[in-house]
Amino acid sequence: MAMFEKVWENMFEGGSLWAGVINGGLAQVQDTVALTSGRMKADDYAVRSTRNVTTALGTMAGVEYGAVLGSAVLPGVGTIIGSIVGGIVGDQVGTFAGSQAGNMLFKRTRNYESPKQVKELTMSSSDASQTDEVSTVQ
């Protein structure tokens, strides 16, 4: 249990903090520009902001936990590789969780996008005009 407490403490200092701040911060700046230029609706901005925060936290946690696991397997090189892989996995998990939570909170719809689809939507500015539909089979 002490190992997890140490990871939690380290997550908010050093490299993992900056990885999360840069990752989530740049995405938030892009979304803010899209909102102020009229390319994004306010509810989409709220969803994206939620996603950006969870992506940053996921990246930070992934870097730290990846480093711990990598160090356990192969100290030195494993720490570096674990940090990179953990950061990528944490980013994907944070993106997915934030998109789901943001959609439930701000759009009141269910959105079953995969992390890859969420990243693709991030790259396009036309998703503000898309609607989410849930189909039912009777």
TrEMBL record:
Q: State the protein's name.
A: Glycine zipper domain-containing protein
What the entry lists under Pfam families is as follows:
Gly-zipper_Omp
Q: Locate the region Disordered.
A: 117-138
Biological source species: Alicyclobacillus dauci
Q: Which PANTHER family match?
A: CHANNEL_COLICIN DOMAIN-CONTAINING PROTEIN, MOTILE SPERM PROTEIN
Composition bias of kind Polar residues appears in 122-138
Glycine zipper domain: which residues?
Answer: 58-98
